[in-house]
Amino acid sequence: MADESTVDEKAQLKAELAEPAVDDDPKFNDNVENAKFLTNGGDVKVEVETSSSGGASFTGLGKEELLQYANDPFWKKVRVILFILFWVGWIAMLAAAIVIIVLAPRCPHRPDLKWYDKQASYQVYPKSFKDTNKPGKAEPGEGVGDLQGIISELEDGHFQDLGVETLYINSFYKSGGVDNGMDVVDYKDVEPSLGTLAHIRKLRKETKDKMRLVVDFIPNHTSRNHTWFVSSQNKQDPYTDYYVWRPCTKGGAMPNNWLSVYGGSAWEYDDLRGECYLHTFLKEQPDLNLMNEDVRKEMKDVLSFWLKEGIDGFHVRNAEYLVENMTLGNELASGSGSVMTYESLIHDHTTHQPESFELLQEWRAVLDTAANKPGREKALIVTVDTDMNTTMKYYETNGKSGATYVRMSPITNYDKNGLATHLKDRIQEVAVDDVHRKIWMLDNENLDRIASLIGDEYMKALLAVQILLPGVSSSYYGDEIAMKNGVPATPSKDPVSKLPGQKNRDAFRTPMQWSSEQPNAGFTDPTFMPWIPLGTNYKTNNVQHAKAYHSKHSIMNTFKQLVLLASNESIQFGKTVVSVLKDNNDVFWMTRKAEGFSGYLVIINLGDSPFASNFKEAKISNTLMHVFHSDGDLIEGDMDLSKRAVSIAPKHVHVYKFD
């Protein structure tokens, strides 16, 4: 019965579909007429054929009709006009683009400056910076600064507050305990009183992406306790010729008349080997034989080791003494200095030898190989004190690059009379060089502190010269608060001071003065004795005081403002003009100007009286903006020097911006 019912329903549906449509719409009827009924088993499918000849269909123009339009004079004219308009428009746009390119102001040129071309650096003498040892702990170095002390000040923001971005750390290598880290016994380990290799790694981690790290590299000599020297004493290969040995007899004549930098013969008889070894410095610091290929490989390996630890640069200590003339000829008398003092000879066999320049080039190649990506450039730095022709050889000889930078001072004469003229002459001699840039320092661990040499009142002026010259600045710890020479320890911690005619360098290395309220100036725990006595003025001259309220014009704030000012393009890579006023040779002025950027006029009155001038001889725009004053507030708005002069008080520094 179910099958019969299904058949009847299908028959009825078919009959209904076969009936004429009641809609009178022709299109609808056409579609119905073209409907087909398809059966597939028990299913019915309706397929409707759509007519292609409906009223909505479009066949387009035929070939003959198109040819009629193509040959029509009107349409020919339209096509020609449109063609001409297209090319006229295209040429007009091309011409406009060329005019814009030619006439539009170009972006000013920016040289490709690396990090070492633009970052102010800060030199830390680790033993005197900050001690983090605590009472009750059996730790070496109580009362002696350490690497953790540097890390703590990094965390507290002292370096960032100053604006310095490169940290230069003096020797922290494991040493023989004679010359405060300069007598190395292990180039790949840390002096226990300063910390461990883990502290260096922590320091690198803390400074990552914030600061660059530069460390001392001491290739000229080692400690007499170094395993290399002990093996060389015993003529154990390959160390037999690791040092400069020459035959001599005990108590007899030395191999030649060469002198130590500290006076006396540069040769020392060794009982064990029965020969003399060369020591340019202390007898506890025998000179390495850097002409020996094995020694050269050792030094490259030392560089590679610290490069892998993330060090960004190396200050090559005693670069001028690296290699000697091995003919061993006697040096000629200089005509100055007393007998057996270093100054009594002309050191043409023991300084600035061509092989020393070649060594720097080898080490530079090691650093360049490690600089495998932009931003990872490495710096090789030297400090030399010689004429400029010789200095240039440290940068490059025979087309090969040596030192990245040479450190030197912008001042060599500290006579306050004529100081402005001396600065002008010195800078014109050594600074106005766009290719061979300098690192400017005022003092270091081996020199008198600048504040003691010249006085507090000149400190801001010299900081301005140091920081705003072409190149970059390197400030010795404590310069930011004008620390002065202190009182040496008793007994002295400086072995050089025990030699005739030598200064006691303890005075240049007194502990950093952090606070007036904390015992020991905040340098070390109150229960410890600082390794060198604190400066006598630490209660009135310290970081806490320099950062306090109502100290807006402190030397430290001046330092910070100058470092910030040095980040401007014209200071970083602009041309330099220096002079003194024709009408007053106590007034020093300098302009720094890079093409396409605002320039800067620096004015320093180094005399004892105020002076006013329009500074026409600087040949700059009359319209200036006051951007820095060492001891007062800034003048707001533009200044027109064609209408009014500027008055400069004694020892004051002003900086103006001009276009």
UniProtKB/TrEMBL annotation:
The chain crosses the membrane at residues 80-104. Residues 7-17 have a biased composition (Basic and acidic residues). Residues 123-509 form the Glycosyl hydrolase family 13 catalytic domain. GO terms for biological process: carbohydrate metabolic process. It comes from Mytilus galloprovincialis (Mediterranean mussel). This is Solute carrier family 3 (Neutral and basic amino acid transporter), member 1. SUPFAM superfamilies: (Trans)glycosidases. InterPro entries: GH, GH13_cat_dom, O16G_dom_2, SLC3A2_N.
